[in-house]
Amino acid sequence: MRKTILYLLLLALIAGAAYYFVFYKPDGAFPKSEADFGVKDTAAIGKLFLSTPAGENILLERSDSGWVLNKKYKALQSTIDIVMEVLHKQEAKYPAPEAAHNNIIKSLAGDGVKVEVYNRAGDKIKVFYVGGEAHESSGSYMLLEGAP
Fold it and tell me: Contact at 8 Å (CB) between 108 and 141?
């Protein structure tokens, strides 16, 4: 009986430690002003504008009949749903390594996609840049406009 209680306590301790290491996200890992990529209320989005340094642009605008691509084509609702889900769920996992910071910034400036998110009134909600894959395909490098 005594061994059983000891094993249960040990199991509870291991489970608690596993939960802590898997799910705990400490506040202050890096400033929210540098990591707030998600859009909380995607229903408020009225327009998305994406542009590359090569001059390629995509404009998605909400209309009464659905979303319109480049003022010309009706966008597929299933694709728009995926885009909105990504905008809502995207979050920063960790800051870029300091040793790679300058190279990442150069890469974002040369190859990154600028994403501008506007509300239905036409006001900018958020602007950020999306670059290439992070180490081992664990995500993408991103930078909020105005972040240091």
Answer: yes
Which two three-digit tokens encode residue 105? 């910034």
pLDDT tens-digit readout, 92-148: 877 777 888 788 888 888 888 899 999 999 999 999 888 888 766 678 888 888 776
Give the span between the Cα atoms of 125 and 128, in whole angstroms.
10
Percent helix, percent strand, percent coil in the chain, to nearest 5 = 40, 30, 30
Residue 113's contacts (CB-CB under 8 Å, 6 or more residues apart) are: 50, 51, 52, 129, 130, 131
Helix (H, G, I), strand (E, B) or coil at 148: coil
DSSP 67-119: EEETTTEEPPHHHHHHHHHHHHH----SPPPGGGHHHHHHHHHHHPEEEEEEE
Return d(Cα 129, Cα 29) in angstroms, integer. Answer: 21
Q: What pTM was computed for the model?
A: 0.72
The answer to whether 113 touches 58, Cβ cutoff 8 Å, is no
